[in-house]
Amino acid sequence: MKKQHSPEQIVKKLQEADRLRGSGMTVPDACRQLEIAPATYHQWRKKYRGLDVPQAKKLKELEKENQRLKEMVAEMALDNRILKAAAEGNL
Predict the structure, then answer these.
(1) 34 and 13 Cβ atoms separated by less than 8 Å
(2) Cα(14)–Cα(20) distance, integer angstroms
(3) Under 8 Å between Cβ of 53 and 22
(4) Count of domains in the chain?
(5) What is the DSSP code (8-state) at residue 87?
(6) Is residue 2 one of the residues assigned to a domain?
(7) Among 25, 38, 53, 65, fewest CB within 10 Å belongs to which?
(8) How far apart are CA 12 and CA 53, in angstroms?
(9) Would you give the end-to-end CA distance of the chain in angstroms?
(10) Mean per-residue pLDDT over the chain, rounded
(11) In a domain, 52, yes or no
(12) Pure H helices in 1-89
């Protein structure tokens, strides 16, 4: 079963992984200790590198808002097509 991590948890785990790696531990060993897959570690690092907890929260909020806006645009485009077809008498 997949485990969902909050942005705060992700940032904290990345900071802990960096601390472990700084002490000489390899990536797979650090991931094993943090109970995450190495692939997950690399994905998180690519996305959240250099962020602190408030910035990670803001990023997550912006991603949700962006998704909501994309859905609104898609619905409006569909409504526009329906109205155009109705105006042309194709319905």
Answers:
(1) yes
(2) 10
(3) no
(4) 1
(5) H
(6) no
(7) 65
(8) 8
(9) 47
(10) 90
(11) yes
(12) 7-22, 27-34, 38-48, 53-88
User: Residue with structure tokens 């991590």?
Assistant: 5
- How far is Cα 88 from Cα 91, in angstroms, rounded to an integer? 8
Tracing tokens 């992984």 back to the chain, one arrives at 17
Whole-prediction pTM: 0.63
Q: Which amino acid appears at position 49 of this protein?
A: R
Query: Which pLDDT tens digit goes with each residue over 34-77?
Result: 999 999 999 999 988 888 888 888 988 999 999 999 999 999 99
Is residue 28 included in any domain, yes or no? yes
Give residue 66's domain range: 7-88
Give CA angle at 9 (12, 36), nearest 5°. Answer: 90
Q: Contact 38/51 with Cβ under 8 angstroms?
A: no
Answer whether residue 21 is part of any domain: yes
